[in-house]
Automatic annotation (TrEMBL):
Its main location: membrane. It comes from the Bacteria. The chain crosses the membrane at residues 7-25, 31-53, 65-85, 97-116, 123-143, 149-169, 181-203, 215-236, 243-262, 268-286. It is found in: Membrane. PANTHER family: EAMA DOMAIN-CONTAINING PROTEIN, INNER MEMBRANE TRANSPORTER. The keyword Membrane applies. Belongs to the EamA transporter family. Keywords: Membrane, Transmembrane, Transmembrane helix. This is Permease. Residues 10-137, 152-285 form the EamA domain. It is a multi-pass membrane protein. The keyword Membrane applies. SUPFAM superfamilies: Multidrug resistance efflux transporter EmrE.
Length: 288
């Protein structure tokens, strides 16, 4: 399959996986605290990746490890906790919508900080996608006035972290394999995450049935939604562009809304219309 076609396959798979992540976080928070959830997500992903990718660590040059550490901080560590804390107050679907601001942040940071060039149609695509996202957000706020939207700021911060991450990878780690980058990221994060988990009180409540059920949800989230998905994402960045890769965040709300519907989260015609506009934005941002 040609690279032009393959990047769309990667994009769709990532949208399905990451779009499902928000409902898994929601289910995980039933029995876990936000800190416990974020830590377990990282730990499960780290164990999985070290099992399949430990040998790939030898391919990382010594001078590249500082960038591995930075991408682990911005691409995984901070967002894992920020999303978990945010979803203690806002719906999973709202969280996924706000995450769609990532491409705009990627464009701005890429141009101002990393010196990357983007085409005019990519800018139009991002702006159109943001209009669709705004419709989703505003309409959701009207129908869910009980939600604390101050916590939405945490999702915005996470989207900025993702933007920094993809630009760092494109500029400094483009010559490394996705497996090496991902495994290196989680090797760096394993011990900090375990320390946070240890002091979170998790081992005092681990025998609780609700906790155990939540852990299963986060195991899926860690292995599939974090470990495997990150490998695919880094590959997508390398074969396309940071803006195209992060345009997956425009498709994620569509998947998240479907899960939200099954979990009794309210959807409106306006929200579906906003999702359609988002898809147009994705197409324009990827068009040559």
């Amino acid at each position: 399959m040609e690279s032009k076609q393959l990047k769309w396959v990667y994009l769709m798979v990532l949208a399905l996986v990451w779009g499902s992540s928000f409902i898994l976080i929601k289910k995980g928070l039933i029995g876990l605290t936000a800190l416990q959830l974020g830590s377990l997500r990282i730990i499960f992903a780290a164990v999985f990746l070290l099992l399949i990718g430990f040998k790939s660590l030898s391919k990382i040059p010594v001078h590249k490890w500082k960038f591995i550490a930075l991408t682990s901080l911005f691409g995984t560590f901070m967002p894992a906790y920020l999303f978990a804390i945010a979803q203690t107050e806002i719906d999973s679907s709202v969280s996924s919508i706000l995450n769609s601001l990532t491409p705009l942040n990627t464009l701005i940071l890429g141009a101002l900080v990393f010196g990357l060039q983007f085409k005019r149609n990519q800018i139009f695509g991002i702006l159109i996608g943001l209009i669709g996202s705004a419709l989703l957000i505003l309409n959701g706020a009207i129908h869910h006035p009980e939600q604390n939207y101050y916590y939405a700021i945490l999702v915005l911060i996470a989207s900025i972290c993702y933007a920094v991450n993809v630009n760092l990878i494109k500029k400094h780690l483009h010559d490394l394999s996705p497996l090496s980058i991902t495994t290196g990221n989680f090797m760096v994060l394993f011990f900090p995450a375990f320390i946070i988990l240890f002091f979170s009180g998790f081992f005092e409540v681990v025998h609780d049935v609700n906790v155990q059920e939540s852990v299963l949800f986060i195991m899926v989230l860690g292995v599939v939604g974090t470990g495997i998905a990150n490998i695919l994402f880094f590959k997508l960045i390398q074969m396309s562009s940071p803006v195209f890769a992060t345009s997956v965040t425009y498709l994620i709300p569509v998947v998240a809304f479907c899960w939200g519907l099954l979990d009794n989260e309210m959807l409106t015609p306006v929200q579906f219309f906003g999702a359609f506009i988002v898809l147009i934005g994705v197409y324009l941002s990827a068009k040559k």
